[in-house]
């Protein structure tokens, strides 16, 4: 194993030594490296003096640990009345006895700081900072981590010598093997797929409605394009609200459907496109550009170039970076999923349930024999009955418009 020894004169020595070696042998190696006689060396680990007869493994010294070395000569030159280990010693909890002196020693050693930036950048930043309390907290945390690692190693060693026919021991061995696999998978992910641990920002683009700019949440997992009541009012669209399409949208959660705005122009890039909206009473979600309009306008979500292409590519608008998205929007994503999910349906305020081509159920007046005659006529053209009923109800029973929609789909 490798251990690091810091001397009182700020010299850093890295030694490769067997964990079962004695402290006396360690001092002998240090005598060669530092020219400090073995008899004048005083070694400290976690604030406690290491006796010559002790084994490193018995003291809990592990791979990568730090040992402090004070020579008797330097002790005699320490300040009057101050213990020799006060400058560089450690408390039992892992914190430095004199954090300011410890911090200064490390700052003055460029090689040690370079190693720290590689192995523990958080601790390196704390050493370069001015918050000694943060430094002490980190030292205590690292000590706890070493203690926990030591405990786990001791448990693993105990399992190796456990009775192979002991059921409880076998369960612990199985759990240890499983946890080891998880830890190895986690370490591999950190090395080869670190972006998996970063937050994924959802897709937003700039649009305009009635000359008013807004940031639209692009969600191909939502069946309908959704706008909140407050946003529709701000954009001057609430006067077009058709309340016949009231209902309850059921998804991950549920929201009240106030109605539908059948068509309004939205500006994407430099071109205007017709768009229909389902209006929800959802103050936490402003505007969601759903799958219905993505399909209608032949949109392409191009993640390679990080743009939304509209109209088969005639317009390309960039997705917004995280800094360009208002902070309140970053919490809207979960509300958007609650408002409209892939299986969203609506419970109407009255009469019957239907799923409109916009994928949000709503309420419209039912029809009698005349309606059934239209259904039969369109079914004869080769369309499914449910498909025909949805189209007729969507176009308020207009047979020609329903047929045009079915043939166009």
UniProtKB/TrEMBL annotation:
The keyword Hydrolase applies. Residues 368-409 form the UBA domain. Residues 1-76 form the Ubiquitin-like domain. Residues 339-365 are annotated as: Disordered. It is found in: Cytoplasm. Pfam families: Asp_protease, UBA, ubiquitin. The keyword Manganese does not apply. Residues 353-365 have a biased composition (Polar residues). InterPro entries: DDI1_N (IPR033882), Peptidase_aspartic_DDI1-type (IPR019103), Peptidase_aspartic_dom_sf (IPR021109), UBA (IPR015940), UBA-like_sf (IPR009060), Ubiquitin-like_dom (IPR000626), Ubiquitin-like_domsf (IPR029071). One of its GO terms (biological process) is proteolysis. GO terms for molecular function: aspartic-type endopeptidase activity; polyubiquitin modification-dependent protein binding. Its main location: cytoplasm. One of its GO terms (cellular component) is cytoplasm. Keywords: Aspartyl protease, Cytoplasm, Hydrolase, Protease. Belongs to the DDI1 family. This is DNA damage-inducible protein 1. It comes from Erythranthe guttata (Yellow monkey flower).
């Amino acid at each position: 194993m490798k251990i690091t020894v810091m001397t009182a004169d700020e010299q850093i020595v890295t030694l490769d030594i067997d964990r079962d070696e004695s402290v006396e042998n360690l001092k002998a190696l240090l005598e060669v490296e530092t020219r400090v006689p073995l008899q004048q060396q005083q070694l400290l680990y976690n604030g406690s003096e290491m006796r010559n007869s002790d084994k490193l493994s018995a003291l809990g010294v592990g791979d990568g640990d730090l040992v402090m070395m004070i020579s008797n000569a330097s002790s005699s030159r320490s300040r009057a009345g101050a213990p020799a280990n006060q400058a560089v010693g450690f408390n039992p909890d892992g914190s430095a006895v004199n954090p300011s002196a410890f911090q200064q020693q490390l700052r003055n050693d460029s090689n040690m700081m370079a190693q720290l930036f590689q192995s523990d950048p958080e601790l390196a930043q704390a050493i370069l900072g001015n918050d000694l309390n943060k430094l002490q907290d980190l030292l205590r945390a690292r000590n706890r981590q070493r203690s926990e690692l030591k405990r786990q190693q001791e448990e693993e060693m105990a399992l190796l010598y456990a009775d192979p026919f002991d059921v409880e021991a076998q369960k612990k061995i199985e759990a240890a093997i499983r946890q080891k696999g998880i830890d190895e998978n986690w370490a591999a992910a950190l090395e080869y797929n670190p972006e998996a641990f970063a937050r994924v920002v959802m897709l937003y683009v700039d649009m305009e409605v009635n000359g008013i700019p807004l940031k639209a949440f692009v969600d191909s997992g939502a069946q309908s394009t959704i706008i909140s009541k407050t946003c529709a009012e701000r954009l001057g669209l609430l006067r077009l609200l058709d309340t016949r399409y009231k209902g309850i949208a059921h998804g991950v959660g549920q929201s009240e459907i106030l109605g539908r705005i059948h068509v309004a122009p939205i500006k994407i890039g430099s071109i205007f496109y017709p768009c229909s909206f389902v209006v929800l009473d959802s103050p936490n979600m402003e505007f969601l550009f759903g799958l219905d309009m993505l399909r209608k306008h032949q949109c392409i979500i191009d993640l390679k170039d990080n743009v939304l292409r509209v109209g088969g590519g005639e317009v390309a608008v960039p997705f917004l970076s995280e800094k360009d998205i208002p902070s309140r929007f970053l919490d809207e994503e979960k509300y958007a999923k609650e408002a409209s999910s892939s299986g969203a349906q609506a419970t109407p305020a009255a009469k019957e349930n239907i799923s409109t081509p916009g994928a949000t159920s709503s309420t419209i007046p039912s029809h009698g024999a005349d309606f059934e005659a239209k259904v039969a006529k369109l079914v004869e053209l080769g369309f499914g009955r449910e498909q025909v009923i949805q189209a007729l109800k969507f176009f308020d029973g207009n047979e020609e418009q329903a047929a045009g929609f079915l043939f166009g789909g």
